[in-house]
Amino acid sequence: MKYNTMKPIFILIFLMLANTICSVAAPPADAGKIIFSSRCAGCHNINKVVTGPALAGIDQRRPMDWIIKFVHSSQTVIKGGDPYAVALYDKFNKIPMPDHPDLTSSDINGIIDYIKSSAITGSASETAPFRPEKIHPAYLPLSLNTLNNWGFAGAYLILVFLLIGALLALVKVKSIQRKMSGKG
Ligand code: HEC
User: Fold this and answer.
1) Nearest atom in ligand 1 to 74's CA
2) Are residues 93 and 118 in the same domain?
3) What is the distance in A from the centroid of ligand 1 to the CA of 46?
């Protein structure tokens, strides 16, 4: 088979691969960033205190289920007598943080991922070595801790490769057929 007749196939494969790579490389923290900007940034900055506390390092200060409860309804946590929450509430002049009951745990996890990726940390061990996987977790889509999120992308990738395989096999069969019939 001549190059010219195969060109559209290569273009198709290229487009499919490009599409796959783009969808795989979109960092999951993006969703968290969007929610953070629209619903939290009015009161919170990641690295400095504004109306609310700076949120850098929140994942180390508080367990994830506490964060989720607090974001869903901070007043419920405070009224429940949680000493940390009560002290924080007093420190922030009893400004109540609005409830966000509609955010799912994975939304909140996304926000925390975004906070982690944008936090400027003081300790030298955190800042000195450049570790791209910390800043952009999705650039290593197949690392173990992100693997869970990539079930769909993975299935898609496999599909693309199967398709490419099928196309290549088809091309091969056609060229053999042509040779056998004496046209190739
Ligand atoms: C109207 C302002 C406001 C908005 C909007 C807001 N917060 Fe808050 N947040 C506060 C204040 C004030 C506090 C301090 C505790 C208090 O006063 O209840 C706080 C505390 C927190 C804490 C505990 C911080 C720590 O250092 O322990 C977390 C976590 C938090 N907010 C997350 C969020 C997230 C996530 C969003 C967006 C979905 C959000 N907040 C939106 C005002 C706000």
Assistant:
1) 18
2) yes
3) 11
CA 61 to ligand 1 center in whole angstroms: 14
Instruction: State the total domains in the chain.
Output: 2
How many whole angstroms separate alpha carbon 88 and alpha carbon 60? 16
CA of 131 to the centre of ligand 1 (A): 29
**Which residue from 34, 39, 40 has its CB within 8 A of the most atoms of ligand 1, so it is best to mutate?**
40
Work out the angle at residue 133's Cα, subtended by the Cα atoms of residues 144 and 46, and round it to the nearest 5 degrees: 115
In a domain, 117, yes or no: yes
Query: Which two three-digit tokens encode residue 17?
Result: 């691969």
Which domain covers residue 7, as residue numbers? 1-27+148-184
> Model pTM?
0.62
Q: How far apart are the C-alpha atoms of 177 and 171, rounded to whole Å?
A: 10
Q: How far is the CA of 35 from the centre of ligand 1 (A)?
A: 13
Residue 95, token pair as written in the block = 């400004």
Per-residue pLDDT of the chain (184 residues; tens, 9 = 90+): 555 666 777 777 777 777 666 665 555 568 999 999 999 999 999 999 999 999 999 999 999 999 999 999 999 999 999 999 999 999 999 999 999 999 999 999 999 999 999 998 654 444 444 555 555 555 554 544 445 556 777 888 899 999 999 999 999 999 988 888 875 4
